[in-house]
Amino acid sequence: MKILALDTTSGACSVALYCDGQTSEQFVRAERDHTRRLLPMVDRVLADAGLKLAQLDALAVSRGPGSFTGLRIAISCTQGLAFAADKPVVPVSSLAAMAAGARKLHPSWEGAPIVAMLDARMQQVYWGVYGADTPSDSLLPEAVQNPEQVVEKLRDSGLPQSIYGAGPGWHYFQEGEAPSETAAAVVKERDLEVPIRARDIAELALPLWQSGATVAAEALEPLYLRNEVTWQKRQKIRSQ
Questions:
Q1: I want to staple 154 with a disulfide (CB 3.0 to 4.6 A). Which of 57, 134, 159, 186 is the partner?
Q2: Are 126 and 120 in contact (CB under 8 A)?
Q3: Please, what are the averages of pLDDT over each run of 10 residues along the chain (240 residues)?
Q4: 75, exposed or middle or buried, with CB in 10 Å at 0-12, 13-18, 19+?
Q5: Which part of the chain is the Gcp-like domain (predicted)?
Q6: Which domains does the chain carry?
Q7: Which residues are CB-contacts of 20 (< 8 A; sequence separation ≥ 6)?
Q8: What are the Cα distances from residue 213, in Å, to 50, 123, 148, 174?
């Protein structure tokens, strides 16, 4: 089984290859350099493995949520590669990938749910909750909300008391921010530095591919969650 995964969701650019049980990755933090870096990284990962695009079984990509521009770069690149090689695409949640990465970084978190969170700007966050048994699917619907709403939803969720937080969206809950005292009541520990990585997208894509959760390249669409903002940006782009 061979899956090539791409991600430019946030401040990093990464490409990974899952090949018969082994995962290799190119990862670099590049806030505004994704477009120039991405395809050379794809070439390098494939060359290192001695593979050509046609030998892949599928491609995988972060479907979002995340940066509007970042999502479009990775998705457009994935579409082009998938068209060229006539391969299916596995869309993977960026929040699920972040939670999977956090679980690797923190073995002590074991099987507890992880609340992955990205900064959605405008004093809001993208968030979801991921368990060890179903790492690709959020235990609560992925959403964009303000921090106070997140705390309220977690308190009413019936999730176990020991849950953990991952991702830069948790900065709203740092000391001095409005909901900081309530964050401690719903999560046991937080790691704000966990990145979204293509290696986690590739590994999450494997069971999704096996279950048939793929799309054709032309059907691949990002998931923004904040649809009204996305619509305004699309309208602005089309009018230029």
A1: 186
A2: yes
A3: 95 94 93 83 97 98 93 95 97 98 94 95 94 95 93 87 92 64 72 96 97 97 73 42
A4: buried
A5: 30-152
A6: 2-93+196-239 (3.30.420.40), 95-191 (3.30.420.40)
A7: 1, 2
A8: 27, 33, 34, 37
